[in-house]
Amino acid sequence: MNPVDFNKKLHEARFLMQSKRLPEALKVYSELAREFPKLGNLLEEYGRAAGAAGNYELADQLWERVVAIGPKNAALLLRLAAEYGKIWLFEKARQLSREAADLEPENLTAQVGLASLLARTSGVAEAREAVNRCLRLDRLNEPARYLAAHLDRRENKLVEAETQFRDLLASGLRDPHAIYFSHLELARVLDSMKRYDEAMAELQIAKQLTAKSLNMAEAKKGFDERRTKALEKAKALPKTILKSWAQSFPPEARCHAPTLAFLGGHARSGTTLLERILDAHPSVAAGDESMAFNTIGGLVDVMAAEIPADGLNFIRQRFLKNFWKTLGSPTEGKTLLDKNPAVTPYLPPYLRAFPELRVLIALRDPRDVLVSCYFETLTNYSHLSFENLALHYSCVMGVWLMVREWEGLAWLETRYEDIVADLEKEGGRVTKFLGLEWHENQSKFHEKNREKPIMSTTNYTNVTTPVYARSMGRWRVYEKYMEGILPVLEPFCREFGYS
Fold first, then answer.
1. pLDDT score, position 309
2. CATH of domain 216-496
3. What is the topology classification, in CATH, of domain 140-213?
4. What's 123's DSSP letter?
């Protein structure tokens, strides 16, 4: 293939990617890769396309070839680490980031990249060591100073964390993201110190900074459309739909799948705590908010009268391959648990592909849920105000209230407060729902979690210490800020048994 034809083909592949014609794009990239099997830049780009198309196995193979071709340098390894992070393959991301940092120990960018990744996906001790290396190279480095303060907060060194965040904000930070995160982290520190009005003031500054960075009209439109679409689709499906799907796609027509359970509910409802308790069982392999469903959700039309079995089996196999890939550990003979609260509004397409799915929904006082969400680092439109969060909650749990009426659905609700009150009793009830008996390891789940990566560092303390009750009734200290949305939450409080 001459250079003119190569460039023409590459342009075609990129155009197809931009047009979301992903299978066609992969076919063109495959042709180019056969012609130029050692062209690292091409293989790297092909890998990105494979990741975007949901073929994690192919993406991994291609990026491994890129590394093997060489030559290795920190910039290449960090780029690939970032790509692995986008598809939630964090073990590979950490491996490459460590290689980059070891390869160029004086490269501050490489050291900060590793420190940032470890602070988000690992325990404090390893992240602290990486941050200290950054500060030895440049004690004034803004990202490293921020990460040091962040780790202080996670270790409950509240006075030190407050001082560091205030120093950072007073130093004239240049990065708007660093300013936002510093205000938000300071709010978390102040909340832990029971200085609630000060915490809310810092949060409101952070939310205002986010609002300035968004096209608010466009963000609101997208937010409203997504909510409306999810609710309307769930409402349009009859209570007998699961039976219809099971008849058109009977068990004998389905490709084999291990016992699969979904753990959802609204974010900050105790899903991470519950996932770690269940994952401590030797017969459970739990995934923490993997991207596996994202690679199939758009392929399932729940309004279609019929979907060929071959198509549904392709979707099932893609999900399972990607889920196994993200777990990164042996799962043979184990029950798979997909903990992913963000997927809850999209349960209909999930159940279309897996009619046998067991659905476990975590509940928590809706008012506590919203306070906890308001302290999250997310810059989504939904998190800019309590009003938006109340609408988001109404969508997520509104869809669930409709889906749980479906005949033949295997489902169970569990309350965070019940787990806090009696871990073994409620945990045993949930474990039995998965077809298993309570195991002694589950009572010591927090010990295992010191070793397992945490996808959300907000949850780190919660799942690496024994269960505690201090998060219950937290909303009351912020009640005056929530008065306008309490009527919106009241029907859900009543439905789920919260007075």
1. 96
2. 3.40.50.300
3. 1.25.40
4. -
Distance between CA 183 and CA 189 in Å, rounded? 10
Q: Determine what percent of the chain is predicted with pLDDT higher than 70.
A: 95
**How many whole angstroms separate alpha carbon 112 and alpha carbon 118?**
10
Among 60, 36, 35, CA closest to 47: 60
* Cα(328)–Cα(91) distance, integer angstroms: 8
Per-residue DSSP letters for 327-387? Answer: H-S--TTPEEEEE-GGGGGGHHHHHHH-TT-EEEEEE--HHHHHHHHHTS----GGGS-HH
pLDDT at 156 over 80: yes
Strand partners, 88: none
CA distance 324 to 258: 11
One DSSP character per residue, 259-274 reads -EEEEESSTTSSHHHH
pLDDT at residue 355, as a whole number: 95
Q: What is the mean pLDDT of residues 13-38?
A: 95
Choice among 2-6, 79-83, 187-191, 393-397 with the minimum mean pLDDT: 2-6
Interatomic CA distance for residues 60 and 212, integer angstroms: 38
Q: Is the peptide bond before 71 cis (omega within 30 degrees of 0)?
A: yes
Helix (H, G, I), strand (E, B) or coil at 215: coil
Q: Is the pLDDT of residue 322 over 50?
A: yes
End-to-end CA distance of the chain: 71
Task: Take residue 193 and report the two structure tokens written for it.
Answer: 């110190």
pTM, full prediction: 0.91
pLDDT score for 22: 92
Give me the residue spans of the domains in the chain: 140-213, 216-496
Q: What is the mean pLDDT of the chain?
A: 93
Mean pLDDT of 431-444: 95
Query: Token pair 């945990």 is at which residue?
Result: 427
> 429: which 2 tokens?
């009830």
Cα distance between residue 66 and residue 475, in whole Å: 50
- Rg, the chain, Cα only: 24
